[in-house]
């Protein structure tokens, strides 16, 4: 419209180009400062008055504006005609994910709060904590272009409202409630120059940066640019590493911290927590304190995708029954067991509706402050008779207690290429299932042994004897293992190797309830369980990287 040319010449407004922008790419243009009415941004990017299409051929601009304006009838159509879109992630993402490039999303980064600092002679921009637009650009691989509009703050006077005054407090509260800021501004009148809503005639020069930020980073050979896929991969590594470090150090660290706090001015906090710990001591044995929120943390999805980990269902499980899942093999850290049964990352509740899994782990872990609460939040319970009896007899039906049958002893034989499980003399779980009438379900996790390399000693060696003795004393096996480094894949470290882990849940074995099962009955169901586990292994081994000739060794 010719109207916009008159608006341009009133101030006047000028758009200054400092570098070409490739029309094959998409861009996020950060506009600063907001001013009172964003006159420079509207004229330069919502109209052709300053000749944007001629200066940057092949680019289409869309200025982001508060979503509430798009709820106003007729006005919404008016602003959409100029290319304005709501300032929400959905609208911006739609434009930036369009293939072929040529889209430039213009964001007044400081937003409504920045308008409260729009005073003549003031060059304050709200940017220090504004990082959402950066994340948006990274997610879509869009180049960032900073823009400064000289003169934007000069066209209106605003009542002084320094931080800390009652006026500024009211303005900020109203801005948070309404979404728009309410600066008390004025300029000149239509027919007089003393007071009114007509902006002053001050030149506004909108200038882009010398080059787009991401393009500049791409041009620096010494700077390894993080693409979206690389960022996701780093998040996956961090999620796995935090699990490993948490498992190894959180319990001991929190115990030492609690003891230290007793020697400081914070001893009251330590005393209160200790009192709570004593009061809550038996909770792990009584079903624990499961948290759906913790089980659904996003970090577990990154954890799952690092390997990746999958859960395979072979048969339906009835919510009217209770179950004991026998998990094999132990591996070093039971990554598959934790991800599948201690979180919802692989969708256990959707795959087995009505079944509530409880992964059983060393009872000693539940004596460690804070760490015990962290474990319980994932639905993890102590692997002792009292805890399992409670879940299978006093917690209704639809419970599945997951027991890593081989336990700590089995981890000493975990290494890539080994398909060995410690099961031949492990019959306690079968007796428990018979006493509670809980069905037995064999579970095999292909790839669990592949994620770490371990130095395995001969059974008659001195080192193996030391490992077994320590295992009996401490409750866990001191394995000499390593994965890869955090920064260099060829180095040694605690980060596991990226090897797929596929957990297959087998067919349930129906078990009758017998208060005092004889040894013959226990042996019979134990033999049935071994046959079922071997059948499960043989049926799925070739699908998940093993050869037809590979066999499962029962120790």
Automatic annotation (TrEMBL):
Main location: cytoplasm
EC number in record: 2.3.1.20, 2.3.1.76
GO molecular function: diacylglycerol O-acyltransferase activity; retinol O-fatty-acyltransferase activity
Pathways per UniProt: Glycerolipid metabolism; triacylglycerol biosynthesis; Lipid metabolism
Source taxon at top rank: Eukaryota
Reaction(s) this enzyme catalyzes, per UniProt: 1,2-di-(9Z-octadecenoyl)-sn-glycerol + hexadecanoyl-CoA = 1,2-di-(9Z)-octadecenoyl-3-hexadecanoyl-sn-glycerol + CoA; 1-(9Z-octadecenoyl)-glycerol + (9Z)-octadecenoyl-CoA = 1,2-di-(9Z-octadecenoyl)-glycerol + CoA; 1,2-di-(9Z-octadecenoyl)-sn-glycerol + (9Z)-octadecenoyl-CoA = 1,2,3-tri-(9Z-octadecenoyl)-glycerol + CoA; 1,3-di-(9Z-octadecenoyl)-glycerol + (9Z)-octadecenoyl-CoA = 1,2,3-tri-(9Z-octadecenoyl)-glycerol + CoA
Family, per entry: Belongs to the diacylglycerol acyltransferase family.
Protein name per its UniProtKB record: Diacylglycerol O-acyltransferase 2
Lineage: Eukaryota, Metazoa, Chordata, Craniata, Vertebrata
CDD domains assigned to the protein according to its UniProt record, in alphabetical order: LPLAT_MGAT-like
Membrane topology recorded in Swiss-Prot or TrEMBL: Multi-pass membrane protein
Subcellular location, record wording: Cytoplasm, Perinuclear region; Endoplasmic reticulum membrane; Lipid droplet
Cellular component annotations (GO), alphabetically ordered: endoplasmic reticulum membrane; lipid droplet; perinuclear region of cytoplasm
Broad EC category: transferase
